[in-house]
Amino acid sequence: MTDRASWHLQPGDAVAGGRRVVRQLGGGKRTEVVLARGEDPSDLVVVKLLRPSATGVAARALLAEGELLGRLDHPLFPRLLELREDRGALQLVLEHVPGPRLSTAVRRTGPLGAADAARLVLELADGLASLHRAGAVHLDVKPSNTILSSRSRLLDLGVARSLADAAAVRGLVGSHRFQSPEQHDPASFGGLSPATDVWGVGVTVATALRGSSPFGPLRDERDVRRRLAPDDVRRLELPAEVPAVLERLVRDAMAWEPAARPAMPELVDRARAVDDELSGE
């Protein structure tokens, strides 16, 4: 079997203790994700399960993701409903979070306004601060992992690491277009840290304000993926109508050196002040 071997689950198939598949939601190299329902059609859940070809390493990673979600108690993250084994494979049963992904919303309706963007900074930063207090970092904060609902939600802790493991990272982790400088070159920066998630908040909100990635595809003239460079960050442009106080917040979160970025609790405090100012409260 290849790494992408699938269970080929179809609508109506049983999964996760008698629930029924509604549709495929996607997945990655090691896992696939489906929307499923219980006996009550309104009882929707998300089931994340290992692919049949997954290794023990993948199983341990999914178990760690489930255990981390089980420790979190913050509305930014989906609730873990069950951690179970079915078909001989580990499965996470998660709260279904309705609403469009930020990436989809921006593509369909255009950039976020300043007040909505400030609220997004606040909600992401507040939840990520709770994750850091739980001893972990997300490492993949990006628009396609962000859901716009009654409040912002953040999905997919599949590449999350403990603080100690993040500091020891020397390989590439995260999504190339949204990676921080230290994710592009962890050895030179001494690994990853909560500051990496601060960058993730900044680049996600910059994308939402611009309507496109701040750095494009990050490819050189030979169409080869390249590392982020300091000039990329210096040349970052935000729309002229973005208030200066919000622009400073985003740019500070995207400082090249991790130590120059605000700590996540500081980002929360600053974002709350900006949110109050822009919302008129």
Sum this structure up briefly.
With about 280 residues, the protein is an alpha+beta fold. The chain has 10 helices and 10 strands. The strands form 3 sheets. It has a 6-stranded antiparallel sheet with strand order 1-2-3-4-6-5, with helices on one face. The protein has a two-stranded antiparallel ribbon with strand order 7-10.
Question: Could you describe the 3D structure shown?
Answer:
The chain has 281 residues and is an alpha+beta fold. It folds into 2 domains: 82 residues, 2-Layer Sandwich (Phosphorylase Kinase, domain 1); 178 residues, Orthogonal Bundle (Transferase(Phosphotransferase), domain 1), CATH 1.10.510. It contains 10 helices and 10 strands. The strands form 3 sheets. A 6-stranded antiparallel β-sheet has the order 1-2-3-4-6-5, with helices on one face. Strands 7-10 form a two-stranded antiparallel sheet. A two-stranded antiparallel ribbon has the order 8-9. Strand 1 and strand 2 form a beta hairpin. Helix 3 packs antiparallel against helix 7, helix 3 runs antiparallel to helix 10 and helix 7 crosses helix 9. The longest helix is centred in the middle third of the chain and has 20 residues. It is globular, with a radius of gyration of 19 Å. The relative contact order is 0.11.
